[in-house]
Amino acid sequence: MTLVNKCNNFITLSCSLKFIQHFVFLKKETAPHSVQAQSAFIGFFSTGHCIDFYSTSLKCHVLLLFDPNGQPISFIVIEVLCQRVGYDFTMRRIGDARKQPAQEQALLLYARRALRNHSGPGYNGTMSSYEIFALKYAGPSTSSGAFIMWMKDWERIVERCFFLWCIKGQGRTVVVDAGVGPQLAAQRELPGYVSPAAMLERLGAAPEQVKHVILTHMHWDHMSGIELFPSATFYVQEQEFRFWTQDPIAKRAPFRHVSDDVSIRNLASLEGTEKLRLLHGDTEILPGIECLLSPGHTVALQTVAVNTAKGKAIIASDCGHSFRNIKEGWPSVLITDLVAWMKSFDRIKAGASSVELIFPGHDTGLADDYPEIEEGITRPA
Questions:
Q1: pLDDT along the chain (381 residues), means of 10
Q2: How many CB atoms lie within 10 A of CB 208?
Q3: Which CATH number fits domain 131-378: 3.20.19.10, 3.30.420.40, 3.10.50.30, 3.60.15.10?
Q4: Which residue from 93, 119, 191, 235 has the highest number of Cβ atoms inside 10 Å of its Cβ?
Q5: Global pTM value
Q6: Domain parsing of the chain, residue ranges
Q7: Contact by Cβ (8 Å): 352, 314
Q8: Chain centroid offset of residue 193 CA
């Protein structure tokens, strides 16, 4: 039995174990592996479980096989040969990584990571799943609507708030963005300011014990509170870090307006130590938590994909200041690379389980429209 539906011009297949066993035997003339390998597959199927997902990186379906303890043991790549409903596809086995060439080892490692991150139905091994909390540390501030929606709503007055995020689960606490420290908050006259440290304490998280802080980008309102996390390792894209610490353009007035020299120097002082990890593109920080390169607002902003009980959620930070930015695919006024931003919109929409699970950086709805856990703290996912 198969369930077949069209999705973005590809065929999405959810296959029962009985069908897969039957298919391996009936279609063996199109499969490049031996009868012995087929028999080994049946052994896997009879003792374990499988799930199917569509890999946007590999551009194909990957059928993951794992034992009753949730350990991945093999996978099959299903190559779609036509864009119509039917069985016109072949199956290619990649088995034990220890017996495979380097390229196949890399593919198997990719599948294992995908298995850890899988949040759909059908997975009955262990999966890392987290809760996401939005912590409002300041706001609301007001501005023209054109600040939030580039070149629109000039005459509207709109509000925005300032957030950091806390991801909790699996015995871990991960903070996304560091907010603003008290001294800079006073200098910038942030309305409604509460120290990010105090906000985390309301959630039962001691900031001095936080081990992981992801900095989505290096604007003042997202990273100048790094001194509040003395035990943390900070994760930032190297391209973002190099721009703000080394590129002379970063010293020009428009960029200095959105940055803080003291905080940048403090972060730069950590280079070469275990307290600063410079990332190169998409990077899994912990099982179920992945930084995604999403430039546009800044040179190398990163969003954060998180496995939750609701599905794959993405903390978009300022890839969208508001929900409206994300839903309409329209940026805010603070643009570094407009073309890159459009591509980042497409990417985060494709990566999240639904657009409702993409959370922007400054929307007042984050504080108003979700269950309040403590004063100023909500749980979007």
A1: 29 32 31 33 39 46 52 46 28 39 49 46 54 98 97 96 97 97 97 98 97 98 98 98 98 98 98 98 96 98 97 98 98 97 97 97 97 97 97
A2: 11
A3: 3.60.15.10
A4: 235
A5: 0.70
A6: 2-117, 131-378
A7: yes
A8: 28
